[in-house]
Structures are given as structure tokens and as C-alpha cells.
Amino acid sequence: SSIMASTMALYMGVPGLPAPVGFDPSSCDVDDVVLPDESLGFDFGVSLDESPSPEEAQLAMMSSTLENFSSVVVVDCIPVVPREKQDKLLAVLGKIFRHPEIGSTVPDGIHMPVDANGTSKGFAIIEYVSPQSAQKAVESINGYRLDKNHVFSVFNLASAERLLAIPRTYEPPPSKPYTPTENLFSWLMDARGRDQFASRYSDQTEIFWNDAKATGKEEPVYQRQNWTESFVQWSPKGTCIATVHRQGAALWGGPEWARLQRFAHPNTRLIDFSPDEKYLVCFSLQEPSHPRESAQANLGFFDLRTGKKMRTFSGPAEDYGTSASSGVTSWPVFRWSGGEDRLFAKMGKNCVSVYECPSFGMCTNSEGEKKSYTAEALSDFRWSPSANIMALFQKEHGGGNAPARVSLVEFPSRKDIRQKALFSVAEAALNWHPQGTYLGVTVDRYTKTRKSTYTGFELFRVAEKDCPMEVLELQDKKARIICFAWEPKGHRFCIVSAPSEISGGRTTVDFYSMLTTDPKTGTVDRKVKHLTTLKSRQCNAVYWSPAGKHIVLAGLKSMNGQLEFYNVEELESMAQSEHFMCTDVDWDPTGRFISTSVTSVHQMENGYNLWSFSGKMLSRTPRDRFLQYLWRPRPPSLLGEKKEAEIAKNLKSYAKRYEDEDERLREKQDTNLASHRKRLMDEFKAWEKRIMERRAIEAKERRSLRGPNGYISDDEVEGTIEEEMEAEEVLEVREEVE
Fold first, then answer.
1. Residues 6+ apart with CB under 8 A from 354
2. N or C, which end of the chain is more exposed by having fewer CB within 10 Å?
3. How far is CA 204 from CA 270, 311, 597, 606, in A?
4. What average pLDDT does the structure give for the chain?
């Protein structure tokens, strides 16, 4: 076609065309220009029917074709093959670039130039029927790995003019003056080591310093009305906060809370950060135009620093975790691994699709093929929080001939670390330890009659050699498991269960440890050990402190906000309290404070309370239509394990300095309160003095207004008439019946 020929001419160069004539417009004087005689007519004596020269025709064709380059793409880095293998390569390219999700090309739309010997030159030119198809090809195939030695580089020829305008000689760009950016870690340099939190109510979003222990109240940092249209979310390391809008999402941070970046993704409903804060995922749902059609899900992956869209995933909502009946999305659809934002994955039917960054292409298998990891009857998967290890649970399949299975697989090598077959399994839940050292699997098994189930636990020691595994079963096998929770820093875990006998809604809380150390000999016993049982508790949720050792046993929803603050290290209850109708419990990043809140799911008692880790209420803040309470996360500590252990050992010496500082702050607060009260008393006395002086000045005028029979004195006692009156009081009424 003419477009293809022009494209070839631009990409490879047009032989035979004369070089451009050099012309300096600054050297031209308009007054010296001689125009043709007007008497020659409109065409100035030049025949309009004259055919252009071949060079002029070629340039005209190229100029008109530039407007159509938006539907043409160039694919570089394809294999260089001889003539006899070119048909096979063209068939492979056609299969890739004519995919139904991309679009169709024009007839004979794939052209692969060859040299004089008939060998391909390593690139191809493809013309699509529409610019939209060409753009999809650039977005989805650029970076595609054909084999180990060939990675496609796909670009649109709409940028041909820009590419041709690049000068032959390199000229360094002009240097720009340095403009200081927002310090995203300024909040970590607070002299008193305080934490921040965000609260959202009605149309207000506020950010405070938590100063409850020292001053008994919060210190405001920033406040903004209508900052977001749905919710706010801190980044995993707390460097910025995200707001959600109809046009997409925006990031804010620094001392002035300036806008750092924005991401265009219309009708954004949900967002998700990668763990290392390199990427942001935006999710939107496009409602169908016809009732019989399904909703379309759109997910955009953005570079957090540049705002560039790295890749888009779209398709039926059911394929991206959204229920067709309820419309609820299982979020996040793509789950990130714990290995420095390198891998993320999505579960499909009997498979898991694993993608790698920064190419955002699918990971290859051992044969170099980009294929999903196959797992029959796959029910769930979870990444390790600290490594590129995936735990998968497969249900029974094959008519019951293939048992359920739990697998640990390392990616991208797809190496099996450990597998365990499970028999007579109804359902299972995967629970990784926050440090990735253990994996707990809650397994619901059928009884022999298969009419009921009982629960057990499969515990994997992932960090140890050969990944040993233990089985744990509760004494009351008929107990219903409510929750399972690992201690964030440590080796303990907690199980909340409802006993099989009638308990009036009360539950049992059991604590276990994966290893114990003998205090006398220092030997370590690597077996699961039961620590204690708390019976008859009003608890249906547990919240471990980020530092471990302490836990909050909470009775939410039907239990009306019962709270118990428990010390697992000493196995003792520190305090019991209540936050009526409480819906959320959150620890601050240091494990020193706890917030409990009642959101607008209830019409009454909205607001939040702050507590110390030991259960002492520090402040109470009511808020109408309260929506969110979010502690600002802290980045991982830069101290090593040895240094942290040393600080923990000498904690009392460090704590004394901060306790003295807190005491000084309390004394200052008391001094400020006393000064405030003294100022109020002085103001009252000054006001009283002014009133008495004015009264003395007006005394003569008041006496004259009273007349000759009026009171002489202004004394209120002398001006008061006292009268004695007698009153009868009924003490008792009795009715006698004869």
C-alpha cells in the first residue's frame, strides 16, 4: 500500500531524493521580492495540469502519509532469518500482532524488509485498520520476549517526524536551576518521636500529631475540606497519602502537603500500593450498556514517581475478582510478592498468572515460554511477606481421586519448596507470618460421615531447612474457629474459638508458641507449645501490637465493643474496658497507643478514643458521620537485629530520658493551665472593678430617680423587704376502710 511504501521510505531512507536546499529566512528582504505580473492570470502563467516531478510526487505522498502513521507500528529486535525461514517468522508475528484483543491488520499488513541477499533486516512494519489497534499493540506487545535473545521493541510511526528531527550530533541539554522538592521524610524527624494519624468525617479530612500521652489531646497538622471523593489511604511506608477522585488518584506529602503526583484513571474505585512504594494500581468498573452484558473491569499500573502508566488490564468484571451478583470486588485483584516489588500475580481458573517488573510481562517457565502456573482446582494463593515464595491451596478434584494440596513454590524459578496432601478437606485458609518465617493453614475437614466438619491446623516452618511441618488440633474438635492471628514480631500465635457447648456467645482464646527457650540452659525447643487458655471471653477479634508481646481482645458488632488488654509475655490481663458500638481497632506503628472508633455504619456514638497499650483511656473525640481513622505507617527500621536486641535489653536506661521529657511536658501543661486560670481570674477582677467604679459614679443619679420616699442606701440588704409566712406541709395521707 501507499502507506507501507511511505513508511519504508521514512524508516530506511528514500534513495534518489535531492538534498534539501539550504535557505536562511533571515537573509531575505521582503522589499526585494519580485512577484509575477498579475496580468498573467490567477495561475501566474504556470499550467495547473502540469504533472509534478517524481521527487515532488514522492515528497507529497510522504507528507500525506504522515497523517496516517498513527495506524502503523514498527517492531524492532526480531530475529534475522534467511529467506526460507521468513514465512514461518511472519506466521509467528501474525499470531502475536493479530490477537483478537488487539485488532486486525490491513491485507498483507505485515512487511519484513530484506537485504540484497534476501535476509531479513531484524525489523518489521505493521499497518492496522485503526489507530486504536496500533496503540493497543504498542501498549501490550512492547517488551514482549520472543525468546532468550529477542525482546520486541514496538513503537508507533506517528512519532516519525520527531525521530527524523533528532540531530546527528549530540548536544547536551541546557542545565536547569535546582528546585528543592518536598521532604517526604520530614515527619520522621520530630524531636519527640510522635506519630501522625489521619481522620475523616463528613467532608473533612484532618491530620494530627498524636500527643495524647503528654498533653492529653492531638496537635493539628493539616486540614482540608473535600480533599477526596471517597477515601484516603497512606502509602505502605507512610511517605505520602493518596486521595481518590472521579478523574483518578493523587498523591500528597511533605511539610506543606503539596500534590506530588496524579494518575489519570477515570472512575477510580479502589487503589493499591506495591509494598516498596514503586507502583500504584487503580481499579475502575464500567457498567454495561445492556442488561445482558457484563460489567468491564479496568486496572491501571502506574509508576509512583513519574506518574507514567506502565500497563493496563481490562476484561469482564468476573475475571477480576468482582462478583456478578453483589458487585463486591475481592481486593486486591493483583497481589504483590514480598521481594522488592519484583513480582505480582492474579488467580485465574486452575492457574496463577505471575508478572514481573519493570517489564510488566508474564514470567517465563523453564522452557522460556510465557505461560501461567497451572494448578488444578486452585482455590487460593498468598505471597510470602518477605520473599518471592507463593503458598497455594488446591481443593479435591478428579472426582475425589486427587486430594487437596498445599504447595510452596518459589518464583520466578517455579521451584517446589514443599507440598502437603490433605484428605477429606472441605476448605482451608492460608495465613503467613508477617515476617515470612511461618505459614499457618486452617483446615476444615469432614468427619467420617461427611455430615459435619472439624478444624485443625497445618504449621509450616518456612525459614528452616527442608521446611518441616506440624499438625495442631484443639482439644474441643467441635469448636468453631473464629480467627487465627500471628504475633508480628515473635513466634506466638492466637486462636479464638467458640466452644461446642452453649456458652452464651462467649469464646475461648488460646495462645501457642512455635518455639520455647529454656531460661536455665538456653536450649531451644522447636515444637508447638500451648501457653495458656482464656475461657469465657467476650471476644470475636484479636489485634496484636506491631512490636508483639501485647494484644487486644475485642468483642465487636454484637458484643458491643468489649475490650481486654492482655500481656502475653507475662500471661496477665492488664485492663478491661468498653467502647460502645466500636467498629474498628488499630495500633499505632510503635505499639504504644491504640485507637478504637465507631464509624458511620452506626448513626450514633460516632468518633474515636485513644488508649495506652495497657488499657488507659487517654482521650475521647466525638465526630458526626465519622468515616476513617488511619495511623501513618513508618518505614522499616534501619537498625539491625543485634542493635534492636541491645536497645530492648537496656530499655529502662533509654526510657528514663523519655519519661523525664514527658514529665516536663506535663509540668509545662500544668503550668500553662495555672497561668490560664490566673489570667481568667485577673480578667474577672478587672471587670468587677470597672463595674463597681461605674456603680459609684451613677449612685447619685439612682437616688434622685427613686424620689423622696425611695431608699437612701444602695445596699441590697437594706433594699430588701423581708416577710414571715407560715406554710403547712402534708407529711402523710392515710385512708381507713371500715
1. 343, 344, 345, 362, 363, 372, 373, 390, 411, 412
2. C
3. 20, 34, 17, 14
4. 85
Name the grid cell of 45.
502563467
> CA 83, CA 81: separation in Å to the nearest integer?
7
Q: How far is CA 349 from CA 373, 390, 401, in A?
A: 11, 17, 20
Record the cell numbers describing residue 384, joined without a space.
510470602
User: Closest Cα partner for 537 from 493, 504, 500?
Assistant: 504
**Best CA proximity match to 183, nearest among 234, 238, 254, 240:** 254
In terms of Cβ atoms closer than 10 Å to its own Cβ (0-12, 13-18, 19+), residue 402 is middle
Where are the strands (E) in 287-348, listed by range? 296-303, 309-316, 335-336, 343-348
8 A C-beta contact, residue 152 and residue 140: no
Q: Is 630 in contact with 233 (CB distance < 8 Å)?
A: yes
439 burial via Cβ count (<10 Å: 0-12, 13-18, 19+): buried
What is the C-alpha to C-alpha distance for residues 590 and 595, in angstroms, rounded to an integer? Answer: 13
Give Cα 331 to chain centroid, integer Å.
10
Cα–Cα distance for residue pair 562/41, rounded to 1 Å: 99
Contact yes or no for 431/483 (Cβ under 8 A): no
pLDDT digits (tens, 9 = 90+) for 444-465: 999 888 888 999 999 999 999 9
Taking alpha carbons only, the member of 98, 95, 131, 124 closest to residue 110 is 124
User: What 3-state class would DSSP assign to 572?
Assistant: strand
**Radius of gyration for the alpha carbons in the chain, expressed in angstroms and rounded:** 38
Q: How far is CA 723 from CA 557, 698, 709, 720, in A?
A: 63, 30, 20, 10
How far is the C-alpha of 190 from the C-alpha of 188, rounded, in Å?
6
| Section 379-387 average pLDDT | 94
Which amino acid, one-letter code, is at 146? Answer: L
Query: Residue 48 is which amino acid?
Result: L
**C-alpha grid cell, residue 732:** 402523710
Cβ-contact 499, 482 below 8 angstroms: no
pLDDT at 686: 93
Cα–Cα distance, 222 to 328 (Å, whole number): 33
Angle of helix 699-706 relative to helix 651-697, nearest 10 degrees, comes to 50
Distance CA 198, CA 721 (A): 63
- 56-106: pLDDT as tens digits: 555 455 445 545 678 899 999 999 999 899 999 999 999 899 888 888 899
DSSP state for residue 543 in the 8-state scheme = E
Please give the Cα distance from 140 to 152 (Å, whole number).
11
List, in sequence order, every residue forming a beta bridge with 513; answer none if it has no partner: 492, 529
Q: How confident is the model at residue 403 (pLDDT cuts 50, 70, 90)?
A: very high
Output phi, psi for 87, to 5 deg: -65, -40
Q: Are 345 and 335 in contact (CB under 8 A)?
A: yes
pLDDT tens digits for 504-559? 678 999 999 999 888 778 788 889 999 999 999 999 999 999 999 999 999 998 88
pLDDT above 60 (res 644): yes
Contact assessment for residue 509 and residue 496, using Cβ atoms and an 8 Å cutoff? yes
